[in-house]
């Protein structure tokens, strides 16, 4: 495989799909990891400019994550980049209304999943494991800084954990050829708000954004691809806020 290989989790929609398309145009072979929507994943695959594949996996399951990376090994042989984008957002709720079942769903998807994916990527990329280095970009959220009081404190807390993973892992593997960074999107025009039960959220809150509008998935993807690229070769443990000034 002449092209570098990137795995994009949650690659069938929203920011992940935008990253997959842009990565393909930038010369990557793209692995679209996704949870359940076969048709959406195949649609993104058909939009790629070069080689790619889809792999269905629940990132909250260790066995599923291990199988996904084994499939990447089998189909492409070597992994150069990981974009930890998969995540979930439940309906708006105060902390005193959030039950354990919801909390564990959000933690599994937004913390356990990225952690396991990062672990498997390091096992393949790290020079300490015989790898050739690589780059990891975690898709966090401005919520990790803002807290999302009255709506999604559980989601914000998981993104805070992802920020800490970014910092700690970047220091741990900096000497092993791996750079680890994160982007923190704010209000981005994707379907996650509708899936969280509030499809009008972006319209309602647009006036609170200093730039006066929601962001587009492609604007986040541009930052992700820069962090993956050699143009960011001296950047690790860093965060790019893509939140319109919030």
Automatic annotation (TrEMBL):
**InterPro entries reported for this sequence:** KR_dom (IPR057326), NAD(P)-bd_dom_sf (IPR036291), Sc_DH/Rdtase_CS (IPR020904), SDR_fam (IPR002347)
Q: Where do the Ketoreductase domain residues begin and end?
A: 4-181
**From what superkingdom does this record's organism come?**
Bacteria
Gene3D superfamilies noted in UniProt: NAD(P)-binding Rossmann-like Domain
Keyword terms, alphabetized: Oxidoreductase
Q: Which CDD domains match?
A: SDR_c
Q: What does the sequence similarity comment in the record state about its family?
A: Belongs to the short-chain dehydrogenases/reductases (SDR) family.
List the protein's name.
Answer: SDR family oxidoreductase
Q: What organism is this sequence from? A: Pseudonocardia aurantiaca
